[in-house]
Amino acid sequence: MLTLLENLHRKTYRLETIVTEQRNPVYAITKSYAREVEVYYLGKNKDEHQFQILVVEFDFSDNDNAMGKLIRKLSYLFDELECRADNEGNITAVDNLLFLRLRWSKIQSELSETHKGDAIDNYFSQISSLLEDETKMIDFLTGYNMFGLLFNGLLESFDTKRKRISPEGFTEIMIPEKNGEKVTLKISAQNLEHTEVDDFRGIFICKGNQYEEGFVAIKKQNSHLKHSLLWIG
Questions:
Q1: Is 153 in a helix, a strand, or coil?
Q2: What is the pLDDT of residue 157?
Q3: What is the mean pLDDT of residues 19-37?
């Protein structure tokens, strides 16, 4: 029987992030960033699983303004990824890092002609720094706003309760609930009082060896983030 990781082969998922910012007590703005992602399982080498991830479609709500267009162009940098993951689904290596660096050099050159200023220069510098450090790159790619709902270290943990420390410093708690072939992994948080996060919760759903959907919601003082994943084919 295929494992959850092996069964990601030739699957298409819709990944979406919805951001709600409370600008003042009576005014809030909502933006959405959605991507269609194809996943290909390329086999196992020793204790690592090899994957190719292709982003085949983008759907950004603010695509008609300057910042939205910039974010879209930057997103193309990460639309083709080759990586390895351990048995739990943690990304352990990025195999096409050189390709990404060369692509970024081209994208940065093009964007620098039309985007000027210290803030832009600083943003571009952060991306360059990220691409030079594979560990930082992996941390970035496993963020919930990137591919963290797919490769999150939980895909072989639908049968046991787990705890882990989040990057923000609180404790994530995962509790599986079984109903026939369906397993729901419920996610909650402890020790939020010393962080900037007011509420953190989520759910991952698996049927048999098929990872079907999931979401994580993060509430802070003036913002609400919801990252979601849905198997669509």
A1: coil
A2: 65
A3: 91
- Whole-angstrom distance, CA of residue 85 vs CA of residue 132: 20
Q: How many CA atoms lie within 13 A of 26 on its CB side?
A: 0
Q: What pLDDT shows up at residue 70?
A: 79
Nearest-5° angle of CA 1, CA 176, CA 206?
Answer: 45
Strands 27-45 and 11-24: antiparallel
Task: For residue 16, count other CB atoms closer than 10 A to its CB.
Answer: 18
Residue type, 35: R
Pairing of strands 182-190, 171-179: antiparallel
pLDDT digits (tens, 9 = 90+) for 178-230: 999 999 999 999 999 989 999 999 999 999 889 999 999 999 989 999 999 99
- pTM (two decimals): 0.91
CB atoms within 10 A of CB 86: 16
Higher pLDDT, 75 or 226: 226
Q: Is 220 helix (H, G, I), strand (E, B) or coil?
A: strand
- Other C-beta atoms closer than 10 Å to the C-beta of 84 total 19
* SS3 at position 97: helix
Helical H runs in the chain?
A: 66-75, 97-112, 118-132, 134-141
> Residue 1 — pLDDT band, cuts 50, 70, 90?
low
167, 155 contact by CB (below 8 A): no
Residues contacting residue 199 through CB under 8 Å, at least 6 positions apart: 189, 192, 217, 218, 219
